[in-house]
């Protein structure tokens, strides 16, 4: 705990329900900070699809430099496909931030909160998904030629570097050391004989440095089945950008839905700010109705505080979330308003 310290946070509420859940997460984070004797100072940036329609850019040219001076970034949601294609919004804001700040570790926790009923028979599981976040299938390398003709060709090239693969694997092994000591490395090396065989080879090399960690390599289809049939057997799951993205949406489903899915985009070297965001997206269908579940954003804010070294405040938020869901708040979509769920978490913090 850093009593008296003030952390400078960039707030990017974004689109749809993003502003609603960001406001909720910020209120909870400030309450936890107050309990533990430190402060949060937020600077809000209006970068969004509306901003794009006004300016032709998802963020200004100096947007990255504006963010660079902050201790962390709390993001709401990006995307409004009715007006701006997702390929524009994603590549104009979210991916540039991840890459510019070398946020190569995307962390997504999956477990059931008290009172939440997932779709599976399994009730006790705790999976930490670690996704490579800056290269792989989302590198953006490729192009299209002869567009609009019968000879049109589209090429999307996945980029895997030894540095990128090794560092995300080492991050996963280190995480496993602090948990239950098991790593599941996910590829599709039977079909992708270059990049995924390469990933498997690096996994074996890194594993040799961690004899205390049990490692198993899975193909992506087998891992998808295991997450459904036996999620309790998994501890740390590490995968490439695309595979990790898909698996963590599956992980969100087994923990009760995207309303509980938190994430951190970490720069483990701390040479640049890390970014924290719910996984659920902008949900245009419920935007502005006050029905968004803020728990994923609140959980993301707890991850932010933990990364900043305020582990006690982070735990305080997680315990307050658990107290709220145990009382029935936020466990069923649309059963309570965003404000009611937020107030339940705040009440639990204040009662401590």
TrEMBL record:
It holds the Pfam family Iso_dh. GO terms for molecular function: D-malate dehydrogenase (decarboxylating) (NAD+) activity; tartrate decarboxylase activity; tartrate dehydrogenase activity. Residues 8-345 form the Isopropylmalate dehydrogenase-like domain. Its cofactor is K(+); Mg(2+); Mn(2+). Its EC number is 1.1.1.83, 1.1.1.93, 4.1.1.73. The keyword Protein transport does not apply. PROSITE patterns: IDH_IMDH. It catalyses: (2R,3R)-tartrate + H(+) = (R)-glycerate + CO2; (2R,3S)-tartrate + NAD(+) = 2-hydroxy-3-oxosuccinate + NADH + H(+); tartrate + NAD(+) = 2-hydroxy-3-oxosuccinate + NADH + H(+); (R)-malate + NAD(+) = pyruvate + CO2 + NADH. Pathway: Carbohydrate acid metabolism; tartrate degradation; 2-hydroxy-3-oxosuccinate from L-tartrate: step 1/1; Carbohydrate acid metabolism; tartrate degradation; 2-hydroxy-3-oxosuccinate from meso-tartrate: step 1/1; Carbohydrate acid metabolism; tartrate degradation; D-glycerate from L-tartrate: step 1/1. InterPro entries: ICDH/IPMDH, IsoCit/isopropylmalate_DH_CS, IsoPropMal-DH-like_dom, TTC_DH. Keywords: Lyase, Manganese, Metal-binding, NAD, Oxidoreductase. Belongs to the isocitrate and isopropylmalate dehydrogenases family. Has multiple catalytic activities. Apart from catalyzing the oxidation of (+)-tartrate to oxaloglycolate, also converts meso-tartrate to D-glycerate and catalyzes the oxidative decarboxylation of D-malate to pyruvate. This is D-malate dehydrogenase [decarboxylating].
